[in-house]
């Protein structure tokens, strides 16, 4: 799948030079890369706007890549951290692993590895939980759902249970593939993620 917003720096009216503003690194897959939606409508852009409205001087760097897996994230995280030195990493990966039926132990290990690498570099991390359709079988879907809670508890990072809450089963908020959120869903994605982002940024 194509890269939509890979390594896109969003600076909207903060009045701060890019090299002076603290950075938030959005590190995810197509759900955060803005697959199939206008860049201006994506939740990454909406996040930058909300930060400015709330008085934050942070810039959002979107290093999300459509089709990314947790293994791909492990391979990329160090270079992203070195390049952007983020204060906060928003980690949204795992959906593509789950849809491909990858072993849950490996997904969990990869997510934990990304968290550890980011924290070792001095960044805070928040985790956006993902769920997969129930047609993968109860045993696998339950094991997959528990990954995010386990990582959050073991690594002591804030999380939300389900980034696509209120969107995943609503055809009016999905593109024709019934997987990716459409333009109308982007503000809801931001609203879902905002509480833990705001919490992480509070002094």
Descriptors for this entry?
single chain, 203 residues, six-stranded mixed beta sheet, 7 helices, disordered N terminus, Rossmann fold, alpha/beta, globular
Describe this structure in words.
The chain is α/β, with parallel strands linked by helices and 203 residues long. The chain starts with 7 loop residues before the first strand and ends with a helix. The N terminus is likely disordered. It has 7 helices and 6 strands, in the order ββααβαβααβαβα. It has a single domain, classed as Rossmann fold (3-Layer(aba) Sandwich). Strands 1-3-2-4-5-6 form a 6-stranded mixed beta sheet, sandwiched between helices.
Give the name of the CATH architecture: 3-Layer(aba) Sandwich
Helix content: 40-55%
- How would you write the strand order of the largest sheet? 1-3-2-4-5-6
The CATH topology is: Rossmann fold
Indicate how many domains the architecture comprises: 1
Low confidence ranges: 1-17
> End-to-end distance, in Å?
38 Å
Radius of gyration equals: 16 Å
**CATH class bucket:** Alpha Beta
CATH superfamily: SGNH hydrolase
Largest sheet: 6 strands, mixed
The total count of helices amounts to 7
Q: By helix and strand content, what is the structural category?
A: alpha/beta
Q: How many β strands by DSSP?
A: 6
Strand content: 5-15%
**Which series of helices and strands comes N to C?**
EEHHEHEHHEHEH
**Anisotropy-based shape:** globular
Give the rounded overall mean pLDDT: 92
